[in-house]
Amino acid sequence: MRQIRGLFADPVLSVVGLFGVLAVPWFLTGAGGSLSSWLAQSGIDLLNLWLGTRLYRLPGVGRHGRRFWAAVIAAMGCSAVADSYQTMLVASGHAAGQGSIVQTGLVAAGMIVVVITMMFHPLGGAGRQRLRMCLDAATVLTAVAVFLWYFMLAGAHLGERLAAAVTAAVMLLVTFGLIKLIYSDSAPFDRAPGVIGALGVTGTAVGTPIAAMLTGQAGSHVMYLAQLAPCLLMPVSLRLQERSTRRRAGRRVAAERKGFSRLPYAGVAGTQLLLVAALPAVGADLRIWGVAAGALVSTGLVLARQQAAFHDNERLVTELSASREWFSALVQQAADLIVVVGADDLVQYASPAAERILGARVGLPAAGTIDPRIHLDDRPALDALNRELAVAATAEAELRVVQDDGAHRWLHVIATDLRDNPSVRGVVWNSRDITEARRLQDELRHQATHDMLTGLANRVLLQQRVRESAPDAPICILLLDLDGFKQVNDGLGHHAGDEVLITVARRLAAVLGRAGTVARLGGDEFAVLLPGADPGRARLLADLIAAAVGEPIPVAGTVVTVGVSVGVAAGTPADADRLLRDADDAMYRTKQSRRTAA
User: Fold this and answer.
1) Do 422 and 497 share a structural domain?
2) Do 141 and 176 contact (CB within 8 A), yes or no?
3) Which of 243, 306, 340, 375 has its CA 20 to 30 A from that of 394?
4) Which residues make Cβ contacts (< 8 Å) with residue 310, sequence separation at least 6?
């Protein structure tokens, strides 16, 4: 309803409609004649020229569309010049019924430009879709040709027949081009404006002969209306197309699926009715009338059945398209990554989330394998996932995938084997990005097992490393306690004390390297775990640690020096608690002896 009100509010459509309403009494009462008709046609040509120029200049019109509208402008310009010339001839006393070679030539030239442009316009579509389009266009074109033949060529004198044949041929070509574009997927106009324009072009060819046949008078006032009425359809068609194009440019409009066209069936019905209408002229008897009536009824029933089938097909296709669009929208907007891996281990499909998770363009992983994307350390987990899929329909794993820039992200993968499904024929990976969750887990795990100040292992991680050692393997534990640290902490403040602890931790890690584990147990107390070491090697390391820690430490604008007392204990992981006690006793004995010596 809103669109209908918009049509009435359009100034161009309102003026054209008002003119059409006023033209009926004007010509039927005899007030209008040949001069008025040619003046009106010249005005309509100028209006078409203006509307075609506006369509050519609209934004969003493609290259082929702009070329089509340029041809329309050329044709409308030729028609405007031709009809204006004919108007001047009629105004100067030229016989109204006599045609002009100049007028006919200009109109034909403009129409030929349009025909050539339409013939080279890309059709779109492929395969059976294009075949169906060509068959529909041929059906409608055949019906138009039959009507042109019947109303223009049959029964005329030879000279009139040849002149009418030229006009019919040109109009037939224009109509064919319009019908071809109407059924194509790349028409520069919408279907409704295209049909209106095709009716206007066809009407200019058959309108006058039909009026002459119905009235029996070649110069009646109805002839002027029959000549003028189809011309009014052209500005209506152009204006509707302009409104539609502007509406699409102003907002994004979803592409509409073209339904099944009823025009071919209307053409078939029209030719059947025309056949029945032509029977009285040949003196058909009752037998022929019966056959014709039967053919007409049979055709009507077949067409009705076909229309019902079309209605059901359109409903099913619409429901299927809506379901596909709904599913496609879910996949397109899903944060999870969906990957389909074929039986040949090639990626058949990757959802748009691949651009965010993998750093790859959508569709880029296709024709590649998934293995290069998996982090080297997680290849065993991928192998385990594939082994599990060999015996189960679904398997899960947490893997790191490598992005195009070399970074990696953690994915929780749920793999489902659908290789036996003919619609999929592959393994579907539904993967959720758990990188942030893993980062948080790693951070919490690190905080639980490491000292916050120095970054060294804490008591929990030290005990874990002891438990991870072989039960019968020899281990040594060194327990360290700083000498002179309390004086630094009390004299220079806790900030200076923290700097000393951080420096000592760095020196311990540098001395030990990868030979064992350094841990801070709390305060100024540290521990070292040496797997597979004997007591002699442990005491040698204790001397190196004492020398490294005893180096001056710059802190708080001054230099301080701290010492370290080291206790060593050797045994096996089963005696870990005893080893810590023995190392603690040995450390205090060392500290006591250092004090006595001082």
Assistant:
1) no
2) yes
3) 375
4) 259, 260, 262
In this prediction, residues 435-451 reach a mean pLDDT of 86
R_g over Cα of the chain: 46
Task: Let me know how long the chain is.
Answer: 598
Residue 439 C-alpha from the chain's centroid: 33
Cα–Cα distance, 37 to 25 (Å, whole number): 13
**511 CB contacts (<8 Å, ≥6 apart)?**
541, 544, 545, 548
- Do both 368 and 459 map to the same domain? no
Largest CA distance in the chain: 145
Query: DSSP state, 185?
Result: S
| DSSP output for 80-145 | HHHHHHHHHHHHTT--TTS--HHHHHHHHHHHHHHHHHHHTS-----THHHHHHHHHHHHHHHHHH
Q: Which helix (H) or strand (E) covers residue 501, if one does? A: helix 494-512
pTM, full prediction: 0.47
pLDDT by residue (tens digit) across 396-439?
A: 888 888 877 778 888 888 888 888 888 788 888 888 888 888 88
- Residue 374 CA to residue 111 CA, distance in Å, equals 64
Query: Whole domain around residue 376: which residue ranges?
Result: 337-439
CA 179, CA 176: separation in Å to the nearest integer?
5
Structure tokens at 233: 């359809």
- Domain contains 315: no
Is the same domain home to 176 and 239? yes
pLDDT in tens, 215-224: 555 556 677 7
Separation between Cα atoms, residue 110 and residue 204, nearest integer Å: 15
Same domain, 431 and 527: no
Half-sphere exposure of 322 (CA within 13 A, CB side): 6
What CATH number does residue 560 fall under?
3.30.70.270
β-pair partners for 519: 457, 527
Asked if 578 and 570 touch (Cβ cutoff 8 Å), the reply is no
- The strand pairing partners of 572, in sequence order, are none
Q: For the chain, what is the domain count? A: 3
The verdict on 455 and 435 lying in the same domain is no
The residue out of 203, 225, 250 marking a domain boundary is 250
**3-state secondary structure at position 415:** strand
Q: Residue 377's CB: how many other CB atoms inside 10 A?
A: 10
